[in-house]
């Protein structure tokens, strides 16, 4: 009976999460589907034809993909050492540093982006992909630090001390001990970072100056359209890109996991 109830809840949760996706899929093929109608009166490929017929689509997808990947990598470079330091060490000014790191979440990015834009113009990073990648670090790094810090705190610093005592170093301790047991933290960070980067419209438009075309910039004008099939098609494409990135990083993490043949993933 308990197993039956458990499976029932699993099916209900799956139905809960899959229903919006299914509705989007139906809507992308629907023709003139009005509110109140249970089923669309007809089917049409107009939504997908408009999406695939967009001449800038491939450029926008590739640009969004490249920006998202580099934003993820830079988040790892910045957030992992910061999270480890905050999790394992106490130092003067730690509370102030934690407050500063959380400010980009509390303060809207648009409040400071104009000043950053002026600085990027002076150093030649405005209207470039590099400038957009750097500006996307503002809304993503705080989340990465919090995710990785929670992972380090869950495991504790004693494991690292044991590896060092046995003759290893901190880098090997991270690779052999922390990495296999923080797979879920990496998975969550990759998905969240890419989704945040992919959805940035205002920051990309200001820093990119229209020269850096991402999927968000391409998608935004269609929001004013009354053609819901087109909007549904774009939404499905938006949902597909993060899934592709997660699959890519899952493959990479599997290859570099030193215990990929053991069940150390928690």
Please give a quick description of this structure.
With 266 residues, the chain is mostly helical. The chain is 74% helix and 2% strand. The longest helix has 32 residues, at 57-88.
Low-confidence stretches: 262-266
Name the average pLDDT.
81
- Helix content estimate: over 70%
Structural class, by secondary structure, is: mainly alpha
Question: What's the main sheet like?
Answer: 2 strands, antiparallel
The count of helical stretches stands at 13
- How would you describe the shape? globular
Layout of strands and helices, then pairs:
Layout: H1 2-29, E1 30-31, E2 42-43, H2 46-52, H3 57-88, H4 94-106, H5 110-123, H6 129-135, H7 137-155, H8 158-165, H9 170-181, H10 183-198, H11 202-208, H12 215-219, H13 228-256
Helix pairs in contact: 1-13, 2-13, 3-6, 3-7, 3-10, 4-7, 5-11, 6-11, 7-10, 8-9, 10-13
Characteristic terms for this protein:
two-stranded antiparallel ribbon; disordered C terminus; mainly alpha; 266 residues
Describe the structure in your own words.
The chain has 266 residues and is an all-alpha fold. The protein has 13 helices and two strands, in the order αββαααααααααααα. Strands 1-2 form a two-stranded antiparallel ribbon. It is globular. The two termini are 27 Å apart. The relative contact order is 0.14. Mean pLDDT is 81; it is low at 262-266.
């Amino acid at each position: 009976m308990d197993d039956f109830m458990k499976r029932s809840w699993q099916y209900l949760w799956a139905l809960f999460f899959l229903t919006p996706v299914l509705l989007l899929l139906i809507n992308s093929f629907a023709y003139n589907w009005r509110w109140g109608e249970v089923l669309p009166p007809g089917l049409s490929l107009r939504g997908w034809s408009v999406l695939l017929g967009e001449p800038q689509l491939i450029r926008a997808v590739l640009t969004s993909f490249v920006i998202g990947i580099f934003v993820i990598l830079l988040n790892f470079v910045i957030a992992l050492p910061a999270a480890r330091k905050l999790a394992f060490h106490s130092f003067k000014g730690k509370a102030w540093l934690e407050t500063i790191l959380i400010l980009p979440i509390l303060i809207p990015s648009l409040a400071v982006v104009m000043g950053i834009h002026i600085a990027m113009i002076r150093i030649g990073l405005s209207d470039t992909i590099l400038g957009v990648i750097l500006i996307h670090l503002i809304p993503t790094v705080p989340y990465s630090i919090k995710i990785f810090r929670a992972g380090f705190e869950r495991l504790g610093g004693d494991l690292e001390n044991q590896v060092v005592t046995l003759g290893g170093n901190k880098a090997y301790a991270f690779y052999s001990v922390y990495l296999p047991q923080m797979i879920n933290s990496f998975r969550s960070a990759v998905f969240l970072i890419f989704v945040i980067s992919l959805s940035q419209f205002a920051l990309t438009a200001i820093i990119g100056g229209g020269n850096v075309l991402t999927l968000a910039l391409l998608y935004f004008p269609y929001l004013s359209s009354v053609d819901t099939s087109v909007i549904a098609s774009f939404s499905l494409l938006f949902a597909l890109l993060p899934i592709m990135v997660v699959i890519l990083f899952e493959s990479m993490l599997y290859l570099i996991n030193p215990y990929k043949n053991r069940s150390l993933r928690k």
